[in-house]
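Researcher: I'd like a candidate sequence for this fold, 412 residues long. If you have to choose between options at a position, lean toward the conservative one.
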């Protein structure tokens, strides 16, 4: 008897999240077969030996007796107030604890933010390359993702005038990711001001993904979008996962600022969605006040000599020495968006290369097309391994690229 076929919802058509897709599943199969796989596909600090600060773990332990019950749907007051204080120190003075929502990571809050906003066919302006959850969440909720280009030849910095040209009567929001995942770009003030003016001129909601806000290198400076957006609603996203190396805590937050008067119904809809899941992880929320108010240990990792800085330097030096690779120096976040020179490998295909690199060299990375770009000659790797491991990774990549470069000659 033929089994009954259970079809998935049509709402999932066009929803992609390839960072944990077929490549990651194949890596799992290879691991079960006994192979050691170097996983560079996601920014997961704990998997590379990074630890959340001890003070955060102690804060959770000491407050466990307060974590048995559900919290308020917005989160516990000390965590929300800590976000308010951080925003105030950055010059964002119109946020109160009532404007802050704690979530099970930023991912959950991204889903809530778009679910509460979008009608079928509404458009959201999203950078290309993007963190693919933004595109997936837009499509999942019936919206249309309109990608504004962040071109490699311009250091992956967007042009506000190109963004303005994409605004239509159906545009509802614009997503800004700086420091950027996957490229490591940190947007300068004039670009952010330009985006702020576009959002205000067209009454767009600004979603500012600042999960990597303190992960910057050299002379790069992170500028909070909420300091620039005053005449429309701005939602700023942050969390413990990256800066504080606590992905498994599943603690993120969003704070609403700017023009909140006309957004009361939207924020109430956001609270309704928060209420439907009762509350986010309570023990992890008790680490927020300690994290935001204590020593910012991420600075020890990003300054010269720090582990992230060393691995970043290894990538830059290795790529510069390569016959096949090129890269824009990442100025923030935990990734490098590496390109393959089309003049040396004109028919390069990132998906095929990623699968072959996994099968033959046992390195898992994310193809560039996973990040909603129209070109196929890039891939993203994380900066989280130590520099010795990254040297080995680059050597394996170079070996395979050399083999690919020889194939057309040998076939002639």
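Model: Candidate sequence:
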């Amino acid at each position: 008897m033929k089994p009954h076929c259970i079809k998935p919802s049509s709402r999932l058509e066009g929803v992609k999240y390839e960072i944990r897709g077929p490549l990651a599943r194949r890596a799992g199969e290879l691991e079960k077969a006994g192979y050691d796989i170097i996983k560079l596909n996601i920014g997961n600090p704990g998997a590379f030996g990074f630890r959340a600060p001890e003070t955060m773990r102690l804060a959770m332990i000491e407050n466990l007796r307060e974590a048995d019950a559900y919290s308020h749907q917005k989160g516990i007051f000390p965590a929300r107030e800590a976000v308010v204080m951080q925003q105030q120190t950055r010059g964002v003075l119109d946020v109160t604890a009532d404007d802050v929502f704690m979530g099970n990571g930023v991912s959950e809050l991204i889903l809530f933010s778009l679910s509460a906003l979008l009608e079928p066919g509404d458009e959201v302006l999203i950078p290309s390359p993007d963190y693919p959850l933004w595109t997936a969440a837009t499509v999942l909720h019936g919206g249309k993702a309109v990608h504004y280009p962040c071109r490699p030849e311009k250091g992956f910095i967007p042009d506000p005038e190109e963004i303005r040209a994409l605004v239509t009567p159906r545009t509802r929001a614009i997503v800004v990711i700086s420091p950027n995942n996957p490229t490591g770009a940190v947007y300068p003030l004039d670009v952010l001001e330009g985006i702020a003016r576009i959002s205000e001129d067209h009454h767009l909601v600004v979603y500012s993904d600042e999960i990597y806000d303190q992960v910057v290198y050299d002379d790069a400076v992170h500028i909070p979008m909420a300091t620039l957006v005053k005449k429309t609603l701005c939602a700023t996203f942050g969390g413990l996962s990256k800066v504080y190396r606590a992905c498994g805590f599943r603690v993120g937050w969003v704070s609403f600022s700017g023009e909140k008067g006309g957004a009361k119904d939207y924020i109430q809809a956001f609270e309704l969605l928060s209420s439907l899941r009762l509350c986010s992880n309570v023990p992890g929320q008790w680490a927020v006040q300690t994290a935001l108010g204590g020593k910012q240990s991420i600075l020890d990792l990003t300054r010269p000599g720090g582990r992230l800085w060393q691995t970043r330097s290894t990538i830059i030096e290795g790529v510069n020495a390569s016959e096949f690779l090129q890269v824009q120096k990442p100025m923030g976040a935990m990734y490098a968006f590496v390109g393959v020179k089309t003049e040396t490998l004109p028919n390069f295909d990132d998906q095929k290369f990623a699968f072959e690199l996994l099968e033959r060299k046992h390195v898992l990375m994310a193809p560039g097309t996973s990040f909603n770009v129209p070109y196929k000659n890039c891939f993203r790797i994380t900066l989280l391994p130590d520099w010795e491991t990254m040297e080995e990774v680059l050597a394996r990549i170079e070996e395979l690229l050399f083999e690919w470069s020889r194939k057309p000659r040998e076939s002639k």
